[in-house]
Specification:
The protein is an alpha/beta fold. The protein has 2 domains: about 110 residues, Aspartate Aminotransferase, domain 1; about 230 residues, 3-Layer(aba) Sandwich (Aspartate Aminotransferase, domain 2), CATH 3.40.640.10. Helices cover about 40% and strands about 15% of the residues. Helix 2 crosses helix 9, helix 5 packs parallel to helix 6 and helix 10 runs parallel beside helix 12. The chain is globular and about 60 Å long. The structure holds pyridoxal-5'-phosphate. The site of pyridoxal-5'-phosphate (PLP) has 13 residues, from helix 3.
């Protein structure tokens, strides 16, 4: 009954299911000074700049660690000690950026909205008009806490009109939601190997406006998270300053090839959007209710309300889905009791249908007849 032959499908915001070819790209050992490895690294960096439309204006600085390491490194490198950030918050990742500013003793103000409400560019406009000390605006493209899509184009337009710099946490969006540096003005965009680009976890990267980065020498109070130092060292000899995650990089290089073969950002977006549509329709057919209205929902991860029924115990639901080969994600919201299902990674309609069938079976087993939330 329970197939244990293959890895479970990861319906999560990352790490996520990768292709067999991406996994097998890790079966070789590479020396960090090996010219073949240096060429792969250089190509990866060029491809990432091109994906962001930053050729000629922006550079790619990769960094070891999970995505948060690169968010932290970018704030610490770009926002000087006498700078001040305006942080747009509607979820846990925006909150994390404020915590980073606390650690780095960078001044900041926040502009908060509820987790099911997008960032408000008009409020940002008023804030920037009244506070001339703000040097940087920091925003999250897709807030993975809920799966909400923030209006990054309007945020970028507002920030540029006031002559301030924009830093985008595009971790869960980059590679699937289009962003073009020629149209959406940003000083830095941060993402990682293991989300929509479908590599394995272990590195993040920032796409940074070259002219802005050149002015950042000595800003960072951290040795290993100083992106200006990371960049100048890599420009110098093509190598990483400290041990590179070689297998992660080679797998990521392969994942970028597969991204291009799928049709780049547009192709990946199409598949994820279809995954989303099938998932949401199927869950609604089962009686579940989404947190977000369809127009605010990014095709990345969907938040569902927990059914208002005593028979529904999330831990049991989760464990029985794992037994059937599907890993979902708990909720992270403060506004409502929820759980999340991702639609990104190397999976398509067949896997979404498989997950929906498993969910229907588990609900029947648990005796959960009513799948709607308490309307209170
Ligand atoms: C995943 C994610 C991060 C980084 O999380 P890590 O666990 O450090 O990789 C940051 N911001 C957003 C919006 C994310 O989805």
């Amino acid at each position: 009954m329970v197939e244990k032959q293959r890895d479970p499908w990861l319906l999560t915001p990352g790490p996520l299911t990768t292709s067999a070819s991406v996994k097998s790209a890790m079966l070789n050992d590479w020396g960090s000074r090996d010219s073949a490895f240096i060429a792969i690294n250089a190509q990866m960096r060029e491809q990432l700049v091109a994906l962001a439309g930053g050729e000629g204006t922006h550079v790619c600085v990769p960094l070891q660690g999970s995505g948060t390491f690169t968010v932290e490194a970018t704030i610490g490198t770009l926002v000087p000690s006498d700078g001040k950030a305006a942080i747009l918050i509607n979820g846990a990742y925006g909150q994390r950026i404020a915590r980073i500013c606390d650690y780095y003793a960078r001044r900041y103000v926040t502009l908060e909205s509820a987790e099911d409400v997008p960032n408000d560019p008009a409020a940002l406009d008023r804030l920037l008009a009244q506070d001339a000390e703000i040097t940087h605006v920091v925003a999250v493209h897709c807030e993975t806490t809920s799966g909400i899509l923030n209006p990054i184009e309007a945020i970028a337009e507002t920030t540029a009109r006031h002559g301030r710099a924009l830093i985008i946490d595009a971790m869960s969006a980059f590679g699937a939601l289009a962003i073009d540096a020629a149209e959406v003005a940003f000083d830095a965009l941060v993402a990682s190997s293991n989300k929509c680009l479908q590599g394995v976890p272990g590195m993040g990267f920032a796409i940074i406006r070259r002219a802005a980065l050149e002015a950042c020498a000595g800003n960072s109070p951290s040795l290993s998270l100083d992106l200006h130092a990371q960049w100048t060292a890599m420009e110098g000899n093509g190598q990483w300053r400290f041990t590179p995650p070689t297998h992660v990089i080679v797998a990521f290089h392969k994942a970028l090839q597969e991204h291009a073969q799928e049709g780049g950002v547009a192709g990946r977006h199409r598949r994820y959007q279809h995954n989303l549509d099938v998932l949401v329709q199927g869950m609604r057919d089962l009686g579940f209710v989404t947190l977000l209205p369809d127009e605010l929902q990014a095709p990345i991860i969907v938040t569902f309300h927990v059914p208002d029924e005593a028979n529904f115990v999330f831990e049991k639901f989760y464990a029985r889905l794992v037994d059937r080969g599907y890993v979902i994600y708990p909720g992270k919201l403060t506004v409502a009791d929820t759980f999340r299902i991702g639609c990104i990674g190397e999976l398509g309609e067949a896997e979404i249908h498989g997950a929906l069938q498993a969910i229907a079976d588990v609900l029947a087993e648990m005796g959960v007849a009513n799948r709607a939330p308490n309307d209170a």
